[in-house]
Amino acid sequence: MSEDIIYLDYAASTPVDPRVYERMCEVSQSAYANPSSTHAAGRLTHEVIGRAAEQLGGLLNVSPETLIWTSGATESDNLAIAGGARYRAHRGKHIVTMRTEHKAVTDVFEMLAQEGFDVTWVDADSRGLLAPDVFAAALRDDTQFVSIMFVNNETGVIQDIEALGAICRERDILFHVDGAQAVGKVPIDLASLPVDLLSLTGHKFYGPKGIGALYIADRPGCHVAPILFGGGQQRRIRPGTLPTDLIAGLGMAAEIAAGGIDDDLAHLSELRDVLWNGIREIDGISLNGDPDGFPGILNVSVEDIEGESLLFALEPICAATGSACNSKVQEPSYVLRALGRTDMQAQSAIRFSVGRPTTIEEVEFAAGRYREAVARLRQLAPDEVA
Amino acid sequence: MSEDIIYLDYAASTPVDPRVYERMCEVSQSAYANPSSTHAAGRLTHEVIGRAAEQLGGLLNVSPETLIWTSGATESDNLAIAGGARYRAHRGKHIVTMRTEHKAVTDVFEMLAQEGFDVTWVDADSRGLLAPDVFAAALRDDTQFVSIMFVNNETGVIQDIEALGAICRERDILFHVDGAQAVGKVPIDLASLPVDLLSLTGHKFYGPKGIGALYIADRPGCHVAPILFGGGQQRRIRPGTLPTDLIAGLGMAAEIAAGGIDDDLAHLSELRDVLWNGIREIDGISLNGDPDGFPGILNVSVEDIEGESLLFALEPICAATGSACNSKVQEPSYVLRALGRTDMQAQSAIRFSVGRPTTIEEVEFAAGRYREAVARLRQLAPDEVA
Amino acid sequence: MSADPYSARVRDLFAAPAHAGDAAGGEAVYVADQDVRLRLTATAADGTIEVLRFRAWGCPHVIAATEAACAALEGRPVTDLENYTAADVMQNLPVPVEKTGRILVIEDAVRSLGQRFRDRT
Amino acid sequence: MSADPYSARVRDLFAAPAHAGDAAGGEAVYVADQDVRLRLTATAADGTIEVLRFRAWGCPHVIAATEAACAALEGRPVTDLENYTAADVMQNLPVPVEKTGRILVIEDAVRSLGQRFRDRT
Ligand SMILES: Cc1ncc(COP(=O)(O)O)c(C=O)c1O
Ligand SMILES: Cc1ncc(COP(=O)(O)O)c(C=O)c1O
Question: Is D60 close to B312, i.e. CB distance below 8 A?
Answer without folding.
Answer: yes
